[in-house]
Design a protein that fits this description.
The chain is α/β, with parallel strands linked by helices and 943 residues long. Among the domains are: 133 residues, no CATH class; 204 residues, Anaerobic Ribonucleotide-triphosphate Reductase Large Chain; 62 residues, no CATH class; 186 residues, no CATH class. Helix content is 42%, strand content 15%. The chain is built from 31 helices and 27 strands.
Length: 943
């Protein structure tokens, strides 16, 4: 731990200096941290996913040898500053870290944070070591802005406020626009705005908050985020007692119905489609602020009053369970709204005398005063796991001290998007230290994510982190003063510290690792309370758990935030380009910890590489299966398993947790009610769910199939023939047009011959893969014949495309086809190519399959359908002249059969639901309640 050196305020050069004594964690006196690193030069070349052209190239960049290709690529493309190709362009990680750390160290020296120049040097060297070794990372705005000529914005999370005045509402629109333009997100509570059931002073009826949400939504959709193509990140909150709460709850569910209707009418309603812009409320996450009073009414099946905004009078009484059911049903239909537990949030509020906490940032982890912001940093937990599977508690505590010191310094030099946000942030100095790689840490140490042991470790680590952070905040208060709002809120702040310490006492430890963590956490909380009573605190908030999307990739983390492993295999980028799928490196470490011999570990890893799961892996004991449970896959963690893990960590966080509780498509409305209710009972501050495949604008959507099945009875109203109609095979003539396509997937080559009917329509496919054995050749011949015969019997090509696109197996990776830059398997490539060659644009668009030229037009904001006007007219003319019957008429038996969702489809839909990255075209993966692209590091929410 560090010491505080006190003395009189410095008056001139001779005055005694007041500041912190720093201790070394990783570095050695007289040795620069860069000198102990093996540096290497690399080339970073990024290709355009639309046409295969090079869209970024920087050769000779310098990184530590132990950094992965992916981490180096992301830092080079996203964080290096200066025009590419100019001498001013950064080319080394050293330059990036030096640019940032120099500002922190110089500001610390200038404002008296350090007791001596030697302490300042220790701070600087330790910070450089930790960043270069991926031990922790600041959030993205720090890397974007600090040390550049741009405004020194360091915060990614913002909360705004809106009053019941038109001027305030218009100011809200403006402030959101400024924040979105800067690449960040914001949240706001609209509950002060009068409902549509109340009167204006002029005698008219108020518009209500939902009406004003339309304008803000349109603004967010227009501005996008950071000037890029991804949507802006925003959160809209409404209190449960607002008279318009039912309308608010149903806004996005109603729009989802509209999306289905428009899609079925032929409009392009995919994510990024040109017609999706006509749908409202799609640019925000919605959350309902529920009170304890409301939740108790739900529990007791009682009534609940909706109150006028101006005088608080009850203007309508409802059954609480009905409203709660409406929330769960809307979430079942479209994943919105989430819930925020208002009384729990404000019971842990350190500054209640300065105002209530009414809203959060878009990902729900930052919760504090209106018109405020929070800068974040996250620790890579796996860096503290020693080879003997013990946790380096002492280094962890010292690192927390270092990070909290640096983060507080950043508020001193930071710029903010609005004057009000700057004033509040400087007055309360909210920080958000958190961590990543918890899921990997638990697996590596042989702990199941959904287990008492796993939760004990998570609770102890979180408690130790926050206790050390607030103890450091008390030391900073002695060195450079408390936050401005502390005097007014001192008793409330100290009460919350005692609540954290009391929660720490309830942790039930089970093993040596969590016992060691808990012992130190107890010591830290005791010292925190002692120093806080004496010095006060420098920061109103200290900790939260962010999604760690881009920075998690920068630190080469296997898991983000508090999340479990997504799957047992992941894609690894290769130095020469392309990628390969490998078993996560935490798996063999976990197997060794569980006592398996090297040959057993090798056999199990090979099994996972082939099958993607551990069920029936050779030699793996069934009692160890749970250690390898993931967020998706053959053995996925139950929804309540996620909730229980959040509940274990929540009492030790100043803020909340960015996490979405994934639920299977089969989940019921009652299941969602249970999750929301148990979240309240367990003391969470915020909770959001996502039911697989509940949205239309995504690949492999089963919603369309359900609509078709639902409409089948109406179509069957015609008289039923006496005898069943059997499909008729329509053979191809001996001479028919055909195309031969040579292709390559991840370096593996193949050939495809596709034959068509003379009057159009695919009727035959033959496949040959290069360098395969006789068995695989025979299987591919049989597969080709099966596909060909089914096409001739009238099975629509769309059906095969739906079934086989996104199928995952090796080889997978880059292709040599400019229209399909990435493929998850041979089958994925083959059926995407067939769709592009043989399906009309409207059918392909519904499946999310576009050519390079079409994607280019989409990115430019133009309609790709304009490319196919003449094609459509030609096809229609051919159909009329040849009197071609629709395939559905040839195959009534197949058309009426309900579509069955294969287990593999449902299994893969967790990632299929994720949007495609608009920067590089890779399918994104969940990170907290946002998505992150593993290809380029872009995120769908806060950076």
């Amino acid at each position: 731990m560090t010491e505080t050196v006190s003395g009189p305020a410095r008056r001139g050069k001779a005055a005694v200096r007041k500041g912190l004594k720093m201790q070394r964690i990783f570095t050695k006196p007289g040795v620069h941290p860069y000198d102990e690193i093996d540096w290497e030069r690399r080339d970073v070349v990024m290709t355009n996913w639309r046409d295969g052209s090079i869209n970024f190239e920087q050769r000779g960049v310098e990184f530590p040898a132990f950094w992965s290709v992916n981490a180096a690529n992301i830092v080079t493309t996203k964080y290096f500053r200066g025009a590419v190709g100019t001498p001013q362009r950064e080319w080394s990680l050293k330059q990036l870290i030096d640019r940032v750390v120099r500002v922190y160290a110089d500001t610390g020296r200038e404002h008296g944070y350090f007791a001596s120049d030697e302490d300042a040097e220790i701070f600087e060297h330790e910070l450089k070591y930790a960043l270069a070794h991926q031990v922790f990372s600041f959030n993205s705005p720090v890397w974007f802005n600090v040390g550049t000529k741009s405004p020194q914005q360091v915060s990614a999370c913002f909360i705004l406020s809106v009053d019941d005045q038109m001027e305030s509402i218009l100011e809200w629109y403006k402030e959101e626009g400024v924040i979105f333009k800067g690449g960040s997100g914001s949240g706001v509570n609209l509950s002060r705005i009068r409902s549509s059931k109340e009167l204006l002073s002029s005698g008219g009826t108020a518009s209500g908050p939902v009406s004003f949400m339309r304008g803000a939504d349109a603004s967010a959709g227009t501005i996008k985020s950071g000037g890029a193509t991804r949507r802006a990140a925003k959160m809209v909150v409404l209190d449960v007692d607002h008279p318009d709460i039912a309308e608010f709850i149903q806004t996005k569910a109603r729009e989802e119905d509209k999306i289905r209707a428009l899609r079925d009418a032929g409009f392009d309603m995919d994510l990024g489609g040109k017609d999706i812009v006509s749908v409202q409320y799609q640019n925000a996450n919605n959350s309902v602020r529920v009170s304890d009073e409301f939740m108790r009414a739900v529990e007791a099946d009682g009534e609940f009053g909706l109150r006028a905004r101006l005088n608080g009078e009850v203007i309508e009484t409802i059954r609480a369970k009905d409203l709660f059911r409406l929330m769960a049903q809307a979430a079942w239909e479209c994943a919105d709204p989430g819930v925020q537990y208002d009384d729990t949030i404000n019971d842990w509020h350190t500054a209640p005398e300065s105002g209530r906490i009414t809203a959060s940032n878009p990902c729900s982890e930052y919760l504090h005063l209106d018109n405020s912001s929070c800068n974040l940093a996250s620790i890579n937990l796996l860096k503290f796991l020693r080879e003997d599977n013990t946790f380096d508690v002492a280094s962890f505590v010292k690192l927390v001290e270092l990070i909290i010191t640096a983060m507080d310094i950043s508020i001193t030099f930071a710029d903010f998007p609005t004057e009000k946000i700057g004033e509040t942030t400087r007055a309360f100095r909210q920080l958000g230290i958190g961590y990543a790689n918890l899921g990997a840490l638990l697996m590596a140490t042989g702990h199941a994510y959904d287990s008492e042991g796993g939760r004990a470790i998570a609770a102890a680590i979180t408690s130790l982190m926050t206790g050390s952070a607030y103890r450091r905040s008390a030391e900073l208060a002695a060195a450079v003063g408390t936050y401005d709002g502390y005097a007014r809120n001192a008793e409330a702040h100290k009460r919350v510290m005692r609540k954290h310490a009391a929660a720490n006492d309830t942790i039930r430890t089970l093993e040596e690792m969590d016992k060691a963590l808990h012992v130190e956490a107890t010591r830290e909380w005791a010292e925190c309370l002692r120093l806080g009573e004496k010095n006060g605190y420098r920061n109103a908030q200290a900790s939260l758990l962010a999604p760690t999307g881009t920075i998690g990739l920068m630190m080469d983390c296997d898991t983000t935030g508090i999340e479990p492993d997504l799957a047992l295999k992941k894609f690894k980028k290769l130095v020469g380009g392309g990628s390969m799928e490998i078993v996560n490196h935490t798996v063999p470490r976990a197997l060794r910890k569980l006592g398996y011999q090297p040959e057993q570990v090798e056999a199990i890893v090979e099994y996972i590489a082939e099958h993607g799961h551990i069920v029936d892996a050779p030699g793996l004991r069934r009692e160890h299966y749970e250690v390898f449970d993931c967020a998706m896959g053959e053995r996925s963690i139950s929804p309540m398993g996620h909730v229980r893990m959040m509940a274990a960590a929540q009492p030790f966080l100043s803020g909340a947790i960015s996490k979405t509780v994934n639920m299977p498509e089969s989940a019921t409305i009652e299941d969602i009610e249970k999750v929301y209710f148990e979240g309240w009972k367990m003391g969470l501050k915020a909770l959001a769910i996502y039911r697989d495949n509940c949205k239309v604008g995504q690949p492999l959507s089963a919603a369309k199939k359900k609509e078709e099945v639902k409409e089948a009875p109406a179509a069957a109203a015609a008289p039923v023939p006496a005898a069943p109609v059997r499909p008729v095979r329509r053979r191809l003539p001996k001479k028919r047009p055909a195309t031969v396509t040579r292709f390559s997937v991840a370096g593996a080559e193949g050939y495809m011959t596709a034959s068509s009917y003379p009057d159009n329509g695919l009727g035959e496919v033959f496949l040959k893969l290069g360098k395969q054995g006789s068995t695989l050749a025979g299987v591919m011949d049989a597969f080709s014949m099966a596909i060909s015969i089914s096409l001739q019997y009238g099975v629509p090509l769309e059906t095969w495309v739906e079934k086989f696109t996104n199928m995952r197996f090796e080889p997978a990776g880059m292709t040599d086809d400019p229209d399909i830059r990435m493929a998850t398997s041979f089958m994925d490539y083959i059926f995407r190519r067939l769709a592009l060659d043989h399906l009309p644009y409207e059918s392909r668009a519904a499946l999310g399959i576009f050519s390079a030229e079409e994607r280019t037009l989409q990115a430019a904001g133009e309609d790709p359908a304009s490319l196919h006007t003449e094609e459509a007219e030609t096809v229609e003319a051919l159909a009329q002249s040849a009197e071609i019957k629709p395939q559905a008429e040839l195959l009534p038996v197949f058309a009426e059969a309900p579509a069955r969702v294969d287990a593999t489809e449902s299994h893969g839909r967790r990632t299929a639901d994720a949007p495609m990255c608009m920067t590089c075209g890779t399918s994104m993966r969940p990170a907290g309640s946002c998505y992150v692209c593993e290809g380029c590091g872009s995120t769908s929410g806060c950076s």
